[in-house]
Amino acid sequence: MIRIILADDHAMFRQGLINLLSGEDDIEIVAQCANGIEAIAAIVKHLPDVAVFDVTMPEMDGLTAVRQMKRRNLPTKVVILTMHDDPGVRQKAAASGAHAFVLKDNAFEHLLSAIRSVANSSEIMPFAIPQTDFGALELTQREQQVMRLVARGLTNRSISEQLGISIKTIDSHRTNLMRKLNIHSTAELVRHAIATDII
Fold first, then answer.
1. Least buried of 81, 105, 137, 141, by fewest C-beta within 10 Å?
2. Domain spans, the chain
């Protein structure tokens, strides 16, 4: 049985999640909360396996709550819910210590798999997006090399010469990087490389 708490300040959305999850034989909802302060108190009291946090909540937002949990060494794993499909939000969520990220647009479709995946992992999982099967942000070694060189300001031709592969292949790697990371410009790619210590 996976014991979870839900924290979201929108009562109707929270009830929708409860309706979704309550029908699952392997999931027990032990508490529901409207803000991060209530969520931390519920986690301390119940020590659930997984907490589902909205990013934007009054009094204490979801990312601050995750950082508080980390400081207190609370073992509960966290799935972040948000309506913002923004690489910056994902990066902040990952840095705070969250285990998975689900867009509210896809919540009913992907939340169950996210909860089960993080609950059944014996180790801290790499941060990823459940809608792409938790492996979408796992870049290949070559993709990391290309990202590193792009972030250092090299042109595709220079990267091609340095790595000994064609410019067309470099273009393909850049396209794959942007698709996996949901990034739409070189500037965003550079910011992501800096934020994740790829450089």
1. 141
2. 2-132, 141-195
Note the pLDDT tens digit of each residue in 157-172: 999 998 999 999 999 9
State yes or no: pLDDT of 20 exceeds 80. yes
- Which of 138, 124, 133, 122 minimizes the C-alpha distance to 181? 138
Q: What pLDDT, on a 0 to 100 scale, did the predictor assign at position 128?
A: 41
Q: Which fold has domain 2-132?
A: Rossmann fold (3.40.50)
Q: Architecture of domain 141-195 in CATH?
A: Orthogonal Bundle (1.10)
Q: State how far the Cα of 132 lies from the Cα of 176, in Å rounded to an integer.
A: 13
The one-letter amino acid code at 178 reads M
Q: Label residue 196 by pLDDT band (50, 70, 90).
A: low
DSSP-assigned letter for residue 128: B
Please give the full DSSP string across 18-60, using - where no structure is assigned: HHHHHT-TTEEEEEEESSHHHHHHHHHHH--SEEEEESS-SSS
Q: What is the dihedral of CA 68, 69, 72, 76, to 10 degrees?
A: 180
What pTM was estimated for this model as a whole?
0.62
Q: Which residue has the higher pLDDT, 19 or 107?
A: 19
Q: How many whole angstroms separate alpha carbon 175 and alpha carbon 117?
A: 28
